[in-house]
Design a protein that fits this description.
Length: 110
């Protein structure tokens, strides 16, 4: 069973098949377009809009939610430098962990 780190570094069990191990201060890439929300809820208020491939730094996990029949935590992230100048950098907020994958540079690649 994979673990993910909760704020403070306490590992929590993840549901089988619910994704990768999340490590604080590591970079992850989005696998779909996502809104960055100020709270752990889908709402009309957003901190930013990030496109597929945007890089974020994972900071901490929040409440478990179910989306598309998958249980996953909300995660609090900070957006990193994006390819287009008009996209956010350094904005923080909540999004679903299910749509994250380890960034290439964190895997020893580019």
């Amino acid at each position: 069973m994979k673990l993910f780190a909760k704020s403070g570094g306490t590992p929590l069990p993840r549901q089988p098949g619910s994704g990768l191990e999340l490590i604080p201060n590591k970079k992850y890439r989005l696998t779909r377009h996502m809104y960055l929300f100020p709270e752990q809820e889908v709402s009309p208020q957003v901190n930013d809009y990030l496109k597929i491939g945007a890089v974020v730094t994972y900071l901490k996990s929040g409440e478990l939610v179910e989306d598309q029949n998958t249980r996953m935590p909300w995660v609090y992230v900070r957006s990193e430098k994006q390819k287009k100048a008009d996209m956010g950098k350094g904005k923080e907020g909540w999004l679903f962990s299910h749509y994250l994958q380890m960034a290439e540079d964190e895997e020893g690649g580019v």
